[in-house]
Design a protein that fits this description.
The protein is α+β, with helices and mostly antiparallel strands and 289 residues long. It contains 8 helices and 9 strands. Strand 5 and strand 6 form a beta hairpin. Helix 5 runs antiparallel to helix 8.
Length: 289
């Protein structure tokens, strides 16, 4: 329930109402047995991500329960049923309440490309990465990492977390971003760097704007946006600038070819409504869609 960002006060009330005794019993309900078996199957799908040294697999809890059920001839998720049941039982409009951070993210380009997002602070950097992918219409094709700052010459300095891998130069393992929460870095730090695609090197400057103590949702939301992000594999900021130049010049010999390529990459203008619809579910699914 904490991982789903249920209000802590509501969790306490629920636990007290549940009483101290827990009893176990058999069931002949085939529907319940089928659901339990299905859950066991889902647990096997995530076996490679399970950390044996931990009892609570926080980073998997939400994804494990992200499944559809059929009840009263309609499809729903366990999360929908949980929120509906708590709201009805305790007479609250929304059962969610958490601490969230408002961040400004600026992609380093010749043209403006900026987003403002609010996201629960107990999300991991892996979840933050998925939200950033959604914000900038990336497809999660490439590796990424988060850095503390940059040198004056623009070179990245002091890696924070990233895609788990062996460093090809130093033989060190990059700290998995699924193991570190935003609250462990912010608000102690105000700014960090997000780098996506080590070939194109898309550098995003992330700045903490404020902390919201009573955020009433369990998912991130885009609050403001300026400009469109480049398509994948365009060749970095220089390649993107060249793409924009060719696309506005129908007389350029590369115009038709690059236009077809951009269309094939499903590159399109930023859409706030669609982006927020995706952000509502992207953290549960653990991927970009």
């Amino acid at each position: 329930m904490e991982a789903e960002h249920i209000d802590l006060a509501l969790i306490d009330r629920y636990m007290v109402d549940g009483g101290e005794a827990i009893s176990y019993s058999k069931t002949a309900n085939r529907s319940f047995v089928a659901r339990l078996n299905k859950f066991c199957e889902r647990a096997e799908w995530f076996a490679e991500d399970i950390r044996s040294e931990k009892v609570l697999q926080r980073k998997l809890l939400v994804r494990l329960n992200d499944d559809y059920l059929t009840t009263e001839r309609k499809h729903c998720t366990p999360y929908d049923l949980l929120a509906e049941g708590l709201s009805k039982h305790y007479g609250v409009e929304a059962p969610y309440r958490c601490r969230a951070g408002v961040f400004d993210i600026t992609l380093q380009l010749e043209t403006p490309c900026y987003r403002r997002i609010v996201i629960p602070m107990d999300c991991s950097f892996s979840q933050f990465h998925i939200a950033l992918q959604t914000l900038f219409c990336w497809q999660n094709y490439h590796l990424h990492d988060f850095w503390l700052e940059t040198y004056p010459n623009g070179r990245l300095k002091d890696i924070l977390v990233g895609s788990p891998r062996e460093d090809e130069y130093e033989g060190e393992t990059t700290c998995p971003d699924s193991d570190v929460l935003l609250s462990e870095v912010f608000p102690e730090r105000k700014k960090i760097i997000y780098n996506y695609d080590f070939g194109d090197n898309w550098i995003h400057e992330i700045e903490l704007v404020e902390i919201v103590e009573d955020y009433q949702y369990n998912y991130p939301q885009c609050l403001a946006a300026t400009g469109d992000a480049p398509p994948e594999d365009v060749g970095g900021p220089g390649g993107y600038a060249e793409l924009l130049r060719v696309l506005v010049d129908p007389e350029d010999p590369e115009h038709e070819h690059l236009k077809q390529w951009a269309d094939g990459m499903q590159w399109m203008p930023f859409d706030m409504e669609k982006t927020n619809c995706k952000l509502k579910y992207c953290l549960r699914h653990g991927g970009v869609w």
